[in-house]
Amino acid sequence: MEVEKVFHMNKGEGETSYVTNSSVQKTMILKAKPLVEETIIEFYCKTFPKCLTIADMGCSSGPNSLLVISEIINVVATTCQKLCRPSPEFQVFLNDLPGNDFNTIFKSVPSFYEKLRKDWGNGFGPCLVAGVPGSFYGRLFPQNTLNIVHSSNCLHWLSQVPQEIENNNGSIHLAKTSPPNVFQAYSKQFYKDFTIFLSSRSLEIVLGGRMIIIMLGRRYSDPSTKDCSFYWELLARSLRDMVSKGLIKKAELDSFNLPYYTPNIEEVEKIIQSEGSFNLDWLETFDTDWDNSEDDQNRSDFVYDKIKSGKYVANYIRAVIESIVVSHFGDSIMDDLFSRYAEHVGDHLEKERSKHHSIVICMTKNNNQPSQL
């Protein structure tokens, strides 16, 4: 599987599109908002750049694509008003893999500009938005050009499926039954990818620039615990159901693994320190319910409507990974697969309310320069 070529969120605005199924990601962004605002204010008041250059890595498409950018611009504009300073210009770069639905983003840009003018008047900005297709596991921008880098819900996706994990039979990720070499391979691939990401951004960010990352992680050191990615085990269970029914071949399942890894805090800190280009300003964590629908705020230890909750979770997981699954199994099984998956998720959530664990990181570019990439 060539991840860079096949991976993208579901396009369009239909029932299984990312546009329709990205409220969990929005909740994660909003939970991190106070931390992001504090970082932006602190940076801006130290530097007062005439042009604030912002890059959002892994922007995807839909309502979340310009959400963080709006937050950053609004907090800078508010700060300018309080300090009676003129507004800087804003250069915004939206990055994702080439298969991303950039057209949907670009169609929303005129209304984004119009809202900024309405909120802040003619003396604001200007704000200029551009798309940058390509993998963030490598260089994307000229040296020393970015002030702020943001990435939300992306860096747990690896650049590739780890090598030499052919013995991970019956699983599609890390599971209790996975052999030790599989855990080692995933950890090694994350270490390599995150190091490349840091080194690449270090060359592109100005001295003293900030980088803010929100990524899914895990609470415990053991990557096979249920809190890490049990939703993948439920998807593997759905695929095994289809193998037992003769709908897909066992060899197809055995050869399929996801390019996905959720680190714990210690791993993240170790890699940042080892790479050496950034000072770690702060690191926070928070949890978000699998079922984060607005009409399900009772927050008991289980869900009351397992059918609704199962479909809700299945739809947003499908919106994220369908392109990867289709590249391996074809598209003819998708409706059946995610129908089964919704049932397994609903049965699970009827017994316990599971949560995603997020890590929020803020770093400052220091004087240490990595070797040229």
Automatic annotation (TrEMBL):
Protein name as it appears in the record: Uncharacterized protein
InterPro entries: MeTrfase_7, MeTrfase_capping, SAM-dependent_MTases_sf
One protein family per Pfam: Methyltransf_7
Keywords: Magnesium, Metal-binding
The keyword Manganese belongs to this UniProt entry's keyword annotation: no
MF annotations from Gene Ontology: metal ion binding; methyltransferase activity
Organism of derivation: Aquilegia coerulea (Rocky mountain columbine)
Keyword Metal-binding: yes
Signal peptide: none
